[in-house]
Amino acid sequence: MATETGYVSRYLTHFVGRGKSRNEQYELLKRILMGHWLTHPPHVEQPSLGLTIHKDRVFSDNDMFIPDMLCFCDIPEAQLGIHTRKYSQFGIAFDKAYLIATFSARRGSSGRTACRGQP
Fold first, then answer.
1. Rounded distance, CA 12 to CA 38, Å?
2. What residues does each domain of the chain span?
């Protein structure tokens, strides 16, 4: 994973504040960095797994099912222009090799990865 190919990056990147002003996006990134917590809406600082279903919405509008999750991309930096215009120019990136090494080291005998807020 030392070099980028034309299709994937060595980094996983999460862009923050889609649909917000640039100032709001920047402030959100600062809040994430200062708080050491990257969350999904509604931004509660605890691990969660869930799915909100809006039965009154149209499936094809892509807002009927809202999972509690974060999205990351592994688009090479040279090809991020379209993505940053759609989502945000502000984000946080993690080196894939670092993540693998870090989370592999944290795995317990159960095989589960420890999360913040859990023993």
1. 13
2. 11-41+71-106
